[in-house]
């Protein structure tokens, strides 16, 4: 959640999915803060606004309460997630996947980072070594989140750039 929006407790949210209708009225979500604490919330209303989505939660009535949510990550219980269109994946399903470059294992995805460009970055760890790899269609060969495996064809030299 990026910032407060309005005076009645609304928050502006950046979505990492093309599906804008993800938060119907009455749907349950969790706000995860920087201390790994979760708070359950119920969506009262949602609408698009300037490339973001504004959410109004039943439990949040004013700007002060909304400010407590800024910086939180919205999580949807796995059993309540909407099916995704072909070619889309949930970020949480990427974490833990093994990454292979032309058949050679690079490491496992520890986290997914947003904000550096069009493609999210995969933080891939192999022992003490870390790689930031773009999760870009141009490099993806096969994504099998159920099998926890991502096959890529990375440009020469990309793996020599350690994080």
Model description:
By secondary structure, this protein is mostly beta strands. It has two helices and twelve strands, in the order E-E-E-E-E-H-E-H-E-E-E-E-E-E. The protein has a six-stranded antiparallel beta sheet with strand order 1-2-5-4-3-6. The longest helix has 5 residues. It is elongated, with a radius of gyration of 18 Å. The mean pLDDT is 89.
Summarize the model shown:
The protein is mostly beta strands and 163 residues long. 6% of the residues lie in helices and 40% in strands. It has helices spanning 63-67, 91-94, and strands at 3-4, 11-13, 28-32, 38-49, 52-57, 73-75, 98-101, 104-113, 121-126, 129-134, 140-144, 149-152.
Q: In percent, how helical is the residue content? A: under 10%
Helix run count: 2
What percentage of the residues does DSSP assign to strands (E)? 35-45%
Radius of gyration: 18 Å
Largest sheet: 6 strands, antiparallel
Runs in which pLDDT lies below 50 for 5 or more consecutive residues are: none
Q: What's the end-to-end separation, in Å?
A: 26 Å
Strand order of the largest sheet: 1-2-5-4-3-6
Q: Say how many strands there are.
A: 12
Q: Please write the string of helix (H) and strand (E) elements.
A: EEEEEHEHEEEEEE
Which structural class best describes the helix and strand composition? mainly beta
Chain-averaged pLDDT: 89
Shape: elongated
